[in-house]
User: Fold this.
Amino acid sequence: MSGDRTSAERRRPLRALAERRRPLLRAALALALGTAGGAAFAWLDMPLPWMLGAMALSTLAALLSLPVSSPMAVRPPMSAVLGVLLGAAFTPELFSQVLRWGPTIAGLAVFVATAGAAATLYFRYVARMDWTTAYFAGMPGGLVEMVLAAEDRGGDTRTIALIHSARVFLIVFAIPFLVGILEGGLPRGGGFSKLEPGGFGLADLAWLVGCAAGGLWLGRRLRLPAAPLMGPLILSAAAHGAGLTTFVPPDSLVATAQVVIGTTIGCRFLGTPARRIVVVLAYSLGATAIFAAFTLAFAFALGWLTGMRPAPIVLAYSPGGVAEMGLIALALQVEIAFVTVHHILRLIMVMAFAPALFRLLGPKRGG
Assistant:
């Protein structure tokens, strides 16, 4: 008996160690599957393969209940790197063009109000959601911000989180093909940044690490929305805009960012029954069609008004996540700074005005 007790006591630390390692192994498996999906899509010559392939295979893993988990530990540092990469598009010459964006920025406010209202009505009267859930599911804002706002007001936060996850999934998957059609041909090949003119030296690495680390601290200190992305983006944009550096992202880093972002999108469906995922995707498909119709209408109208090509406006208005849409713009090389600024402004608009407007519409909450 004493020997059995001693043996059990010896095994206890090993079991505890195994339990601690299990989440890491699940996240590693998710990233491995994401990388395999990206490689498969690259072999098939699909557009934006490393993101779309990772997203597709990790979503399939979630549907099949495979032993994977979202690699959230690597999402903040990769978001910081992505913020630095997006900031590299803010050259000194760019700032002279910002005033020309006035019509599209003004149009963005109208787009958020009208498209958000249409999606809300769709979720309320077609998907038959309660008013609070329909409202915060229909707003084209960030997932976390809309879930927190709905939680304080009694909405179905699980449904809202799934709807926003599905919206990002569908938009990110569809937008490279839509932009390809507008630009006269689907983007093919590796889907890399095609920005790198030469080698990536130690000075470039120092700027990358410095802006990423300093930006993470700045974003959290200022409590910025999407802080791991926004802080590094601000520092990198300031450094590039002031002409202090001209470094650009290496292709391998862009591919890695695609895999991480794609994998985390797919893993958002973990723990949800496959039937529920299918229902949510079906409802989100209708809302995505609404957003796509509004996006195309605004893109062609503003393109006619300003003389811009519709494709950059489509990328700037399509309500995916800031990181996801910025990465698509980076990979497809479509007006990166223009797209990034508009998505940041969209997020700020929704966060600032959606809860206040909900209070004004208070009598409809029980509908």
DSSP finds 14 helices and no strands in the chain. Confidence is low (pLDDT under 50) at residues 190-198. Residues 75-364 form one domain.
